[in-house]
Amino acid sequence: MQMIQLARALACSLALTPLLATGALAQCVDDPLEDNESCATAAPLDDGGYYGLTVSDVDSDHYTFDLLDGDTVNASIFFSTDVADLDLWLWDAGVTPCGTGTTSGDLARSWTTSDDEDLSYTNTTGADQTLVLEVRMYSAGSSDCNAYDLELYGDPPCCFIPAFCMGDGSDGGVCPCGNESAPGAMEGCINATGAGAMLSASGSASISADTLVLQVTQAVPNEFGIFVQNLTGVSPMPFYNGLFCLAPDSHLVRHYNPSVGINPTVTDASGSGINAQALTVGDYLNDTQPGVSVGYQFWFRDNNGPCPHGANFSSGLWITWLP
Ligand SMILES: [Ca+2]
Ligand SMILES: [Ca+2]
Ligand SMILES: [Ca+2]
């Protein structure tokens, strides 16, 4: 394995001069995120899945995003190496060389000879970072253009997918009975557990992939709750023991199974719960469409909470859906 990597390192350094397109092989049609041939022209991305992208031996791809101190980013590309061998690199946007496919100065790389590449990186610098993800063709196979899908996720997801409706007053809300959560905790107002509930997401934000799962944590254990959504947010409103930040209009959806009616999510012994069905199925108004941002919160029973109103809300997440 070491020998393979060394051989690839040597070969890679020789391949820095872009190969000329032969004309005999298929040429790429630009994807919607072009032009992005350098760190300076990198396309900004949020968490999510990006499908049907293309890269060629004379046209690499660069994507940029911010990674907060202490957070982790996970990036994957999916492709056939028989068509062309692609590699994945991660750079600090402010460091030379950025985005040049060289083997020094990068933060992480994935450069196998098999299908697909995956990398993960945790920011331990003590400050927030602006990063660049580079997709570069190492060698052409049956074509000098290859198609790939990109998936990019942060951990915690909150730091890419905008969180809202915090119980710490940072969104301008005042919890109903002085039950503010810890500053910066990104939680809802304090519930019976002594903490506030929050949402996270995993999987792809692609509607066709249909793998996105919303999870609530730090809600009251073994209690009933319902995921709610809307296309429109509003200023935090004290409601039950918490804050509610989704517009109370006709697009407000309580997730349910259309065949059986309201289908609550029951939290487990740790106070966690996931949406028990595809989010798109739970949206009976069919507002979940490509390019549309949907805000989510979790309503749950909080009978022994700090206020006497019997229920509470998690903080929320906005998810921008993809095709
Ligand atoms: Ca491209
Ligand atoms: Ca490009
Ligand atoms: Ca590769």
Please describe the structure with a list of short key phrases separated by commas or semicolons:
binds calcium ion, 323 residues, 5% helix, Immunoglobulin-like, mainly beta, 7-stranded antiparallel β-sheet, Jelly Rolls, 5-stranded mixed β-sheet
List the helices and strands and how they pair.
Blueprint: H1 2-14, E1 43-44, E2 48-56, E3 61-67, E4 72-78, E5 84-92, E6 108-110, E7 117-122, E8 129-140, E9 145-155, E10 163-164, E11 198-202, E12 213-217, E13 224-230, E14 233-239, E15 242-246, E16 253-254, E17 256-257, E18 261-262, E19 265-266, E20 273-274, H2 279-282, E21 293-301, E22 311-313, E23 316-320
Parallel strand pairs: 1-3
Antiparallel strand pairs: 2-9, 3-8, 4-7, 4-9, 5-6, 5-8, 10-23, 11-12, 12-20, 13-16, 13-19, 13-21, 14-15, 17-18, 21-22, 21-23
The structure holds calcium ion (3 copies).
One calcium ion binds at residues 34-37, 59-61.
